[in-house]
Amino acid sequence: MKGRKFRILNRPFSYFRKVIRIGLLSDTHGHLEERVLNFFKECDEVWHAGDIGTIEVLEELEAFKKTRAVWGNIDGHILRSACPEHQKFTLKGLRVWITHIGGYPGRYDIRVREEIRRNPPDLFICGHSHILKVIPDKKLKLLHMNPGAAGLSGFHQKRTALRFCIEGGKPTNLEVLELDRWPEKTSS
Fold first, then answer.
1. Strands laid side by side in the 45-48 sheet
2. Residue 15 falls within a domain, yes or no?
3. Is 144 exposed, middle or buried (0-12, 13-18, 19+ CB in 10 A)?
């Protein structure tokens, strides 16, 4: 191999795979339970769409998997220092925008409305409403995802999270985790 130059790539193994698996959650409000982590165990990355609640939840996610997170309206200065308000990136050809308060197709929040119309991503993710929704925006040619709420705080009746793959620049194989609002009590 004399005379050949090799460049060492500092990339995780998942970088070279054709399919990458994503776990998506939001509105944990300081509560992260084992069933959610089990749902994400085969994922390559976990994305959190804000209202994390405590730095301990973020640290637990980061110790578990590569994590991309944004802060939400209930997150204090520690989480706002650790996470941006918006995450915009491209992964496997998919342009992604994650923020906490974003609205829905046809009713985007004032904070994102102009930018999303000018430069729409392929996948727009937000939390805040505690309502799981996956909606195609045909006008802007994007997919909107809100994973609902994985935590206990709020008005929601079910706790939810999403899992999906990115393949060929598109989200595929979407799955939903649905848990009762309050963890079951064991009787003695």
1. 66-69, 45-48, 19-25, 158-167, 170-180
2. no
3. buried
**Distances from the Cα of 48 to the Cαs of 3, 12, 98, 159, in angstroms?**
46, 20, 8, 14
Please determine, for residue 1, whether its predicted confidence score (pLDDT) is greater than 60. Answer: no
Residue 159 lies in a domain: yes
Q: Which residues pair with 158 in a beta bridge?
A: 180
User: Does any domain span residue 10?
Assistant: no
Domain count, the chain: 1
Percentage of the chain with pLDDT > 70? Answer: 87
> Per the confidence metrics, is the pTM higher than 0.90?
no
Residue 92: which of 44, 130, 58 has the closest Cα? 44
| Strands of the chain, DSSP E | 19-25, 45-48, 66-69, 86-91, 94-99, 103-104, 107-108, 123-125, 132-137, 142-147, 158-167, 170-180
Give me the pLDDT at residue 2, please.
Answer: 57
Residue 74: partners with Cβ closer than 8 Å, 6 or more residues away: 29, 51, 53
pLDDT in tens, 160-174: 999 999 999 999 999
In the predicted structure, residue 128 carries a pLDDT above the cut 60: yes
Query: Has residue 6 got a pLDDT over 60?
Result: no
User: Tell me, what CATH number does 43's domain have?
Assistant: 3.60.21.10
